[in-house]
């Protein structure tokens, strides 16, 4: 059974829902994962922020702005029968009323997570109602019945496999199973989510859990490009890349994939295909186990990085120093991305600066600390094994006009990373595109 995930733009208009219903209409059994209609999760983040601040009137107005007339017009255009329109309107009325009720309750983190879940609950119900109208044999599987994370917000693949297998066994003979991306239950049983862009993760977790033949991620672009198409003018799709390369690109900022969604597919060797809903005839990108021997595959960038330089004379010739430093990051559950060291100083980067002040407070007890915010990690993915020569000179020649704060080479065979100021990102990505992909660009 294949797993197909459709992103926000792919379900963003009634006619797009019509198109994806056609795309999945062959007789093969499938699990279809849907995101919220594009713009909805952003609106829900905004509504939650207003309620969290206690600004009820602004929260209620933002709910009205989201629903009226958008979702009511959406259902009018989505369905062709009176029965379908009535069913669709009932779904929207239910969620509209449900959201407005939050104005009357104390509003905290738990309520925020519940509000954020509304987008995927709405899109899947609307779509399944449409399939019903089209007399298509489908079933809505509530993701909250099987998608679960542990106390560290890590998905529990074994649990998901066990629950989902049992649910599918109980509901055999259905052609299309529809479920929500993004949403899950946490270790307390409360409603939670897999972080922004998390529907990709739902897709790969389900694909891994049922050991699917293929996971398809349908989006608004024809596959993984060699560089960020939002920033660089000339980019091109890559037909085939390895799990390792895709994982690095996703983690280091290629927005087409959720940062950690490749892990479950890689673990269970389920190929992932990236496809364009608007141009389904395009080949897209397939991500699989085949190692690639391209010198350069692609470039990605991760913004809002904080660099911390830690200096101490006691570092000189000392053992145990690094352990002491990393224990602090571990204590505050803050992952470290890049690291470089010298005799007397250590530079590292973090993405999540929620606990920065506490971390700095503890570091300052035994070191001198300097902090630079608004940095960007630029990640160059390719084949940089220890027997290869010449790649670094091409990278640094391309980047000759960009000031570099940190360089990381040799951590992985697939990744060379540099840390630059955020303001230099466009220049760096453009220079690397011209310097490393000249041959492909003139084709
Ligand atoms: P969806 O809503 O379908 O999940 P996303 O907006 O999350 O879609 O991801 C698709 C977008 O990712 C593309 O429209 C593109 O602008 C952006 N993107 C960033 N880097 C890349 C890349 N290397 N290749 C392809 N798309 C990329
Ligand atoms: N709707 C969620 C978001 O916008 C999840 C997703 O689209 O993947 O982040
Ligand atoms: Mg996405």
Question: How would the blueprint of this fold be written?
Answer:
Layout (H helix, E strand, L loop, with lengths): L1 E5 L7 H10 L6 E5 L5 H13 L3 H23 L3 H19 L8 H25 L4 E4 L15 H14 L5 E5 L2 E3 L5 E3 L5 H11 L5 E5 L20 E3 H9 L10 H6 L4 E5 L8 E4 L7 E16 L9 H11 L4 E6 L3 E6 L5 H8 L4 E15 L8 H8 L7 E7 L2 E7 L3 H12 L1 H5 L1
Parallel strand pairs: 1-2, 1-7, 2-4, 3-4, 7-9, 8-10
Antiparallel strand pairs: 5-6, 9-10, 11-13, 11-14, 12-13, 14-16, 15-16
Bound molecules: adenosine-5'-diphosphate, aspartic acid (ASP) and magnesium ion.
Give structural notes:
With 443 residues, the protein is an alpha/beta fold. The chain has 2 domains: 2-220, Carbamate kinase (3-Layer(aba) Sandwich), CATH 3.40.1160.10; 297-442, VC0802-like (2-Layer Sandwich), CATH 3.30.2130. It is 39% helix and 22% strand. It has helices at 14-23, 40-52, 56-78, 82-100, 109-133, 157-170, 199-209, 243-251, 262-267, 321-331, 356-363, 391-398, 425-436, 438-442; strands spanning 2-6, 30-34, 138-141, 176-180, 183-185, 191-193, 215-219, 240-242, 272-276, 285-288, 296-311, 336-341, 345-350, 368-382, 406-412, 415-421. The strands form 3 sheets. The protein has an 8-stranded mixed β-sheet, sandwiched between helices. Strand 1 (2-6), helix 1 and strand 2 form a beta-alpha-beta unit. Helix 1 (14-23) crosses helix 3, helix 2 (40-52) packs antiparallel against helix 3 (56-78) and helix 3 packs antiparallel against helix 4. It is globular and about 75 Å long. The mean pLDDT is 96. The structure holds adenosine-5'-diphosphate, aspartic acid (ASP) and magnesium ion (MG). The site of magnesium ion has 3 residues, from loops.
């Amino acid at each position: 059974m294949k797993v197909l995930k459709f992103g926000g733009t792919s379900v963003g208009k009634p006619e797009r829902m019509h198109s994806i219903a056609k795309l999945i209409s062959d007789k093969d059994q499938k699990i279809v994962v849907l995101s919220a209609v594009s713009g909805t999760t952003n609106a829900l983040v905004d509504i939650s922020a207003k309620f969290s601040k206690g600004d009820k009137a602004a929260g209620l107005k933002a709910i009205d702005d989201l629903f009226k007339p958008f979702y009511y017009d959406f259902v009018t255009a989505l369905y062709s029968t009176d029965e379908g329109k009535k069913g669709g309107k009932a779904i929207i009325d239910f969620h509209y009323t449900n959201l407005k009720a939050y104005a009357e309750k104390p509003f905290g983190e738990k309520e925020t997570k519940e509000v954020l879940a509304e987008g995927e609950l709405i899109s899947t119900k609307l779509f399944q109602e449409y399939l019903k109208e089209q007399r298509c044999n489908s079933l809505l599987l509530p993701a909250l019945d099987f998608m679960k994370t542990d106390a560290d917000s890590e998905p529990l693949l074994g649990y998901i496999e066990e629950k989902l297998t049992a649910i599918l066994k109980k509901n055999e003979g259905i052609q299309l199973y529809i479920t929500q991306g993004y949403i899950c239950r946490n270790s307390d049983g409360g409603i939670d989510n897999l972080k922004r862009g998390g529907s990709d993760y739902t897709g790969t977790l389900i694909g891994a859990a049922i050991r699917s033949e293929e996971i398809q991620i349908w989006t608004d672009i024809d596959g993984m490009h060699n560089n960020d198409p939002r920033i660089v003018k000339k980019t091109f799709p890559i037909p085939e890349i390895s799990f390792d390369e895709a994982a690095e690109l996703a983690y280091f900022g290629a927005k087409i994939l959720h940062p950690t969604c490749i892990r479950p597919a890689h673990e269970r060797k389920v190929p992932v295909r990236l496809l364009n809903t608007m141009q389904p005839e395009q080949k897209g990108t397939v991500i699989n186990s085949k190692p690639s021997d391209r010198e350069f595959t692609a470039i990605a960038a991760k913004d809002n990085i904080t660099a911390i330089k830690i200096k101490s004379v006691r570092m000189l010739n000392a053992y145990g120093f690094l352990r002491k430093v990393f224990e602090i990051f571990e204590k505050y559950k803050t992952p470290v991305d890049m690291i470089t060291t010298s005799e007397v100083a250590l530079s590292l980067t973090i993405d999540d600066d929620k606990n920065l002040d506490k971390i700095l407070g503890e570091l300052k007890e035994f070191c001198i600390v300097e902090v630079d915010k608004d940095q960007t990690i630029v990640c160059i993915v390719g084949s940089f094994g220890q027997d290869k020569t010449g790649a670094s000179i091409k990278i640094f020649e391309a980047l000759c006009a960009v000031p570099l704060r940190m360089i990381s080479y040799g951590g992985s065979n697939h990744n060379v990373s540099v840390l630059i100021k955020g303001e230099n990102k466009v220049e760096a990505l453009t220079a690397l595109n011209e310097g490393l992909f000249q041959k492909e660009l003139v084709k």
